[in-house]
Design a protein that fits this description.
By secondary structure, the chain is mostly helical. About 25% of the residues lie in helices and about 0% in strands. The protein is built from two helices and no strands. The longest helix has 16 residues.
C-alpha cells in the first residue's frame, strides 16, 4: 500500500503504517451523567438515609446482636481526656 502525499500532509520518511493511517482510532470514552434518580441498590451516603431505611436498621441490629452474642465486641467508655466526636 502506497500513500500519495498531498500538500496538507508532510511526507513520511518511514515505512511504518499506523492505525490512524488505516482510519483506526480509540473509541471515545463517554462519562455519563444523568438527571434521573439512581436505583435504590446503591449504598446510602449519610447516616440519615440509613436511619430511615428499615432494611439498614435491621442489618445494623443483627450485626450488633451477633457481635455481643459472640463476645467479640463490648462497649466501653472513652478516656476522660479523649473527645470521641471529632471534626474535619
Amino acid at each position: 500500500m502506497f500513500i500519495v502525499p498531498n500538500e496538507s500532509q508532510p511526507q513520511r520518511t518511514h515505512s511504518m503504517i499506523t492505525r490512524s493511517m488505516n482510519q483506526i482510532y480509540k473509541p471515545e470514552q463517554f462519562h455519563v451523567v444523568t438527571k434521573h434518580p439512581l436505583p435504590c441498590a446503591i449504598e446510602p451516603s449519610c447516616v440519615r438515609q440509613v436511619l430511615y431505611d428499615p432494611r439498614w436498621r435491621q442489618a445494623m441490629s443483627e450485626e450488633l446482636t451477633a457481635l455481643i452474642r459472640h463476645s467479640i465486641w463490648i462497649l466501653v467508655s472513652p478516656p476522660k481526656h479523649y473527645n470521641p466526636i471529632g471534626c474535619k
